[in-house]
Amino acid sequence: MRDRRHPLPSVPLARPRGVPGVPGRRAKGRPVPRVSNLDTAERLFVQQGATALSNRRFGSVLDVADGTVSGHHFETKADLVRAITRRFTVGVESTRAGLLAQMDSSAGIRDWLGCLLHPWTDHFAQRSTTYFARVCAQAMADPTLRAVIFEEARQSPTLRATCDALDGYLPPMPEETAAQRGDVVSQVIVQVCAEREAAVAAGTAGTGASWRNMTVGLIDMVAGIWTAPCTAVRLAERSAHRGAGLGERT
Question: All domains of the chain, ordered by start, with CATH?
Answer without folding.
Answer: 38-229 (1.10.357.10)
